[in-house]
Amino acid sequence: MEDLWCFNDEEVARSIFNSKIPIVTGIGHKTRCTIADMIADVRAPTPTAAAEIVLPDKSEIQKTLSSLSKQIHKASALP
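Above: the chain sequence. Below: its structure as tokens.
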């Protein structure tokens, strides 16, 4: 846990608490929990899980873009 001790710092905790944007942590692994994890809006069990939470699914983005493209083409075809 010593390698993660900086995430128990009061200044870090206050910064997370006062953040105007949502904070997602993925510090360490499932068995380790820091003060930063407890204060964050979302605590992911691992760094990989944190990335999966904050990054949108590529296939969902492609579906949305395809749908929007179809709507634009339909709208532009109107008289």
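Residues 26 and 47 are 4 Å apart (CA to CA).
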